Amino acid sequence: MTDLPEYFFRVKENGATVFRVDIENRQRRIEMDPIANINIRNGEIKPQGDRVLTEEDRAEIEAWMTHRREVLAQRDVDDILRAVDHLNLVAQWAQSKATDAQLEEITDTLLLTMHDLRSVLVRKKAERLTSEG
Question: Is the pLDDT confidence value at 72 over 70?
Answer without folding.
Answer: yes
